[in-house]
Amino acid sequence: MGCMKINKEIVVGALLTLMLTILLSAVHGKSVRQEAGRRFTLNATFSKADGLLPNSEVRLAGIRVGQIGKQKLADNGYQVVVQLVFDKPLDIPADSSVSIETDGIMGAKHIEILPGGEEELLKSGEHFSYTQDALILNELLDKVNLYMKDKKDKEKALKNAAKSEAEPKPETEVAEPEPETVKEQETITEPEAQEVL
Fold it and tell me: Which of 143, 64, 56 is nearest to 100 (CA)?
């Protein structure tokens, strides 16, 4: 009989734990759904989103106002659509732009919102019209190297041109043209002309 009493206590405890878990899950699920319904999101389309990760910061005037949500390829398959999830609704002018920025030279990437001046505001779910892709350090260094190489080549060409102009040119004797002689025209006499015919 003591064994049955212990088994009943275990069963009642397990049932209470199960009911409490179900109740907490329902409450949590309801709050998550309500939060998702109130969530303020905007979208931005970039050609390159290198180094931009989910949950990276979204900043306005240097202050964190949200985070990166989903990232997916655009319908054209060549661009990436990034979802920006905000902590609370914001008044962002419709002509605002976003750019992918880096903290320092090698720091983490984030999105910076650059507010526009239009009175119309973006609504949740809308797209930013103006975007600037991430600056990739390797590409920038390649461009600087190419510029420096071109600059050196141009300087070298200018030095060679100046050097060749400064050197005295050897004088070459130019032969004077011979005076043209007037050729005597052959005169054909009348009887010779008839013979030719």
Answer: 56
Instruction: At 58, give phi and psi (nearest 5°).
Output: -115, 125
Give yes or no for a contact between 131 and 98, defined as CB atoms under 8 angstroms apart. Answer: yes
Q: What is the CA radius of gyration of the chain?
A: 42
Name the residue with tokens 């002689």: 181
Where are the chain's structural domains?
39-132, 137-163
The model's pLDDT over 112-153, given as tens digits with 9 standing for 90+, comes to 999 999 999 999 989 998 888 877 666 777 788 888 888 888
> What's the DSSP call for residue 93?
B
CA neighbor of 126 nearest in space, from 80, 148, 94: 94
* pTM (predicted TM-score): 0.52
Write out the two tokens for 75: 């319908």
Tokens 């892709």, located at residue: 133
Do residues 79 and 91 make contact, with C-beta atoms less than 8 angstroms apart?
no
Per residue in 8-27, pLDDT (tens digit) is 888 778 777 888 788 777 76
Strand pairing category for 109-114 and 57-60: parallel
